[in-house]
Amino acid sequence: MGKGSSKLLEQWVSVRRRTRSEALEALLRRRQERQLWRLAAGEGLDWQHIRNEYYLCTVPVGAKQVEVSLDDCIDAFTAAGGTGVCLLDLGCGVGALLARLRRDKAKAALLDWSSSFGVTSVHDFDISMFTPPPGYPDFFEMQLLRFNLDFLAEHADTDLAGKRFDIITSHYCWCHLQDPLGALSCAFGLLSCGGVLLFMEPLHVPSGSLPYTDHRLYACGTSPLRMQGLLRGWAGQGVAVFSACQAGGDRKHVLALQKRSEGPLPLPAALCPGSFGLPVDARTGDLEFFASPAAADFKEWLRLCKC
Predict the structure, then answer these.
(1) Which of 70, 211, 234, 265 is disulfide-compatible with 174, CB 3.0–4.6 A?
(2) Separation between Cα atoms, residue 256 and residue 71, nearest integer Å
(3) How many domains does the chain have?
């Protein structure tokens, strides 16, 4: 086992105790043993999202609307003429984003394809309905991995071969996980130093929470876990943060984090599993909109990060 993977697993042991109750851990183990996280062919698929070729959305920053795009991250890492970006797409569906980047000769030349992958739970049959990029008939077999993202840390040394990544992205996947905050912590651990994580997830309007602060799963002592608290804690520990949420429509939230040191993603000291029956009116802490105050838009945030 690689040194980096061993450290990630050690960190995960500590994180897991704070994000999962014993009952949830037992449930996840049963689902893992029975392979219940796998989607059977055609079962319950949201085709709009699993075949999405572009990860982008428009969010408010101050008084204006700005576009956030995964392609901006790739461009930022290669602005000085560099190549060999290692990209990991967690919850990649049928691999449409990666396939689009492979078809685009200019973008394809910027990535290290030996260390760029997607992770999916979609059945092989559904993926086989899509045509691979020209010249790469085994593209989906080579670039797509299949495992349960609620056990991401346990696959870091095997399926991911101990690799670290410059960009880790996900689109409408974390909202389906059983322990999204724990998985976020693991994903952050897979970043190389200076790497950027870019997630786009919907805000759950009835509960007013994001996947990372789902009040059915997490609390801070006897108070609800709030996104602003997480953001302040991360920024206070040196993590570069960009965060903003749409005011209407899909209520899509953007979270971008840059890893600036080898330490784990900081979590609140009082974090614990479960809502402990908090009243509904106490569970609306994520309806505020958040944005990095140091940047006018996402591209400027990337420039400030000096990717």
Answers:
(1) 211
(2) 13
(3) 1
